[in-house]
Amino acid sequence: MMSLLLAPLLQTYGWGKFDFAFILLTLLIIPYLLFYGYDNKLPRILSLYFIFWFLTHFMHASSIRTTVSLGWGRTFLMFLMFYSCVKRETFLKYYRIISTICIAFLFLQEFSFYTTGVRIRGIITSLPLALNVQNALEYYDYMTYTGRSASFFSEPAIFCQYVLPLFCIELFDRSRVLHFFYAAIIAVAILLSQSGNGLVGIGVIGTLYCVFEIFDRGISIKRRLIVVLLFTIIAIASTLFFIETNKGKEMLERRSEIENIGGNNKDTHLSGFIRIFRGYYVFQHFSTSEKIFGQDNTDKIKQHIIGSNMYLFFEDDELYFNTIQEFMIRTGIVGLIFYILFLFHSAKKTDLCGKTLILTLFILSFISSMFFTPIMAMFILLAKAEDKEHAKIAATE
């Protein structure tokens, strides 16, 4: 359980694909299976997807080396372990503690940057970096003097993805006003990070929360009107105030990355282009059978990248795609259908908070890479924990 919470922090360090999170989870999977045995608690649709993924990988293997899929095996066993060992209350207890520390440190970074011009580093410089950076010293300097605050994470987007599920849970918890206050603090931290993932996430969660409040027959019309009025006032005031700040102006500059995708300046427009569009051009280069069943051979994916008209937007040996594109490229349209059915299946068996988590994960899948990452597991497992039976128990407490 702690391994799931710490994995997004540990994945910054290591050696390429063998980051500390990968090593930790791999080492824990083996004793877990030895002590607890094989107990498949995965939803049937997810189990079927893993079988399909294995078959497509085997079908496209071009050598003995590519036949063995360490990524598939570790992902399957990792989710098998997470589904068996994560307990809601204990998980939330430590999740709140770690998130509070991360949020407090992000506030400290912002205070330090605006008072001294130097941002306190959250990255441990004595450890090896597993990130795809050519010069570690330049990366450290960028995070210290130029970049945006990311707490202990490698980038603001990962920080936001990490705390968004907690923001949703605290916002939907009606048991105490303190939960709503904590949700507001998380929202402020996300805004300070200036992450597009964070803005999309709190926008989706906040809008759905207001919609559910308005149409909830269990609350008075007066409260519904108050919710609508407060949401409208806060949204307009926050937007107008934020646009006038330096951070708001910086975010408007980042928006130009998407608006000017057709430009020739690779460095200026790369971030928005990478997260949203380029993977579809690579997929378009696939054969018909590959579009249906996918292509999980890394060497062949690289060939398709070179063959597409987007190869100039890829660094050497880079295979970054957003989540939707990962499903399409590695397991085709069939794999994407599995993913959508799995999310729909997960949403059916959970309460309003869980449904919001699932929908947020799906929307973020179009702009970020969370293909079977620990953060994706956090969204899914927390949504699963917010089941309808738990909602009934919470309502009677």
Task: Please describe what this structure looks like.
With 397 residues, the protein is mainly alpha-helical. It has one domain (2-396). It is 73% helix and 1% strand. The protein is built from 20 helices and two strands. The chain has helices at residues 2-10, 20-36, 44-59, 64-67, 70-85, 88-116, 136-146, 156-172, 177-193, 196-215, 221-244, 246-259, 266-276, 278-284, 288-293, 298-307, 323-348, 352-364, 374-385, 388-396; strands at 14-15, 18-19. It has a two-stranded antiparallel sheet. A hairpin with a 2-residue loop joins strand 1 (14-15) and strand 2. Helix 1 packs antiparallel against helix 2, helix 11 packs across helix 12 (246-259) and helix 17 (323-348) packs antiparallel against helix 18 (352-364). Residues 257-269 and 391-397 have low confidence and may be disordered.
Helix/strand/pairing class, anyone?
A: mainly alpha
Nearest-integer average pLDDT: 83
Number of strands: 2
Helix content: over 70%
Low-confidence blocks of residues: 257-269, 391-397
Range of strand content: under 5%
Q: What gross morphology would you assign?
A: globular
Radius of gyration: 22 Å
H/E series: HEEHHHHHHHHHHHHHHHHHHH
* Strand arrangement, major sheet: 1-2
Please give the alpha-carbon distance between the first and last residues: 26 Å
Largest sheet: 2 strands, antiparallel
In DSSP terms (H or I, runs of 4 or more residues), the helix count works out at: 20
Count of spatially separate domains: 1
